Amino acid sequence: MDFPEELKYSKEHFWVRVEGNRAVLGITDYAQIELGGITSVELPDVGYDLEQDDSFGSIEARKTVADLYAPVGGSVVAYNEELHDAPELVNDDPYDGGWLVEIELSDKEELNLLMSADDYQDYVAEVE
């Protein structure tokens, strides 16, 4: 499993890449392995406002459907349109091509509640 150092992580297995006042969100390598083959992803439109821990869509795999939860709050400024035709990008490349949404952060302090890569790796080891 991959745990990129530059990302922040939530206990719900989401990652956050901070880019100034914006953040790109996605599911972790661990989450995509647990879900199995992704068959569809439902994402919010641009302009949708997220509160931290809000459900903002769903991800469907061959064996389950899971809600997507915002690790931080903000307003959606972009979503990964490629996932409509190629949801398997989440499995193939969860940290780059399989990103979900980009948001304008509403409160950068929320980032302090997330885990570092080392902390997340320890967390995953505990839940396995």
- CATH architecture verdict: Beta Barrel
Strand percentage lies at 25-35%
Mean pLDDT: 96
Shape designation: globular
Q: Give the C-alpha Rg.
A: 13 Å
Identify the CATH homologous superfamily. RNA polymerase II/Efflux pump adaptor protein, barrel-sandwich hybrid domain
Helix and strand sequence: EEEHEEEEEHHEH
The neighbouring-strand order within the major sheet is 1-2-3-9-8-5
Number of domains: 1
CATH topology: OB fold (Dihydrolipoamide Acetyltransferase, E2P)
Structural class: alpha+beta
* Gap between N and C termini: 13 Å
Number of helices: 4
Largest sheet: 6 strands, antiparallel
User: How many strands in all?
Assistant: 9
Modified residues (N6-lipoyllysine): 63
Protein name: Glycine cleavage system H protein
Cofactor: (R)-lipoate
Keywords: Lipoyl
Report on the structure:
- A hairpin with a 3-residue loop joins β6 and β7.
- The chain has helices at residues 29-35, 82-85, 89-92, 117-127, and strands at 8-9, 14-19, 22-27, 38-42, 49-50, 55-61, 65-69, 74-79, 101-105.
- It has a single domain, classed as OB fold (Dihydrolipoamide Acetyltransferase, E2P).
- It has four helices and nine strands, in the order βββαβββββααβα.
- The mean pLDDT is 96.
- 34% of the residues are buried.
- It is globular, with a radius of gyration of 13 Å.
- It is of the alpha+beta class.
- A six-stranded antiparallel β-sheet has the order 1-2-3-9-8-5.
- It holds the Pfam family GCV_H.
Describe the protein's topology.
Layout: E1 8-9, E2 14-19, E3 22-27, H1 29-35, E4 38-42, E5 49-50, E6 55-61, E7 65-69, E8 74-79, H2 82-85, H3 89-92, E9 101-105, H4 117-127
Antiparallel strand pairs: 1-2, 2-3, 3-9, 4-6, 5-8, 6-7, 8-9
InterPro entries: 2-oxoA_DH_lipoyl-BS, Biotin_lipoyl, GCV_H, GCV_H/Fam206, GCV_H_sub, Single_hybrid_motif
Domain Lipoyl-binding: 22-104
Function: The glycine cleavage system catalyzes the degradation of glycine. The H protein shuttles the methylamine group of glycine from the P protein to the T protein.
